[in-house]
Design a protein that fits this description.
76% of the residues lie in helices and 0% in strands. By secondary structure, the chain is mainly α. It is elongated, with a radius of gyration of 24 Å. The mean pLDDT is 96.
């Protein structure tokens, strides 16, 4: 490899490294976001799976006038909103795990 080619290669790899460095704060923030997401989902799961959802749903079924207005998202009293969110988060976590294992297991 001549001097010009060597310099071009160093510059190319330096740019790749610079791009990787720029991603690091975003990856750290993503980890924080995942931790928060898991805590929030634990609260949603408790509401949905430990009977509170069912009790409130039955009250609505029996005509109790509760305000289900949202800011544009599905209501937590929709039969599938929380269940689908639980499934979606689990799928995303499994995908992250598979991604991590694939890139950590070098054998």
């Amino acid at each position: 490899m001549d001097k010009v080619s060597a310099q071009q290669r160093i510059d190319e790899v330096q740019a790749i490294y610079r791009e990787w460095l720029a991603l690091q704060p975003k990856l750290v923030q993503a980890q924080k976001d995942w931790k928060k997401s898991v805590k929030l989902m634990a609260q949603l799961e408790a509401f949905y799976l430990q009977g509170e959802y069912r009790d409130l749903f039955e009250r609505l079924e029996h005509g109790e006038d509760l305000n289900l207005t949202t800011e544009g998202e599905y209501s937590v009293m929709s039969e599938d909103a929380i269940w689908n969110a639980i499934q979606e988060q689990e799928q995303q976590l499994w995908q992250l795990l598979h991604f991590a294992v694939k890139h950590l297991d070098k054998s």
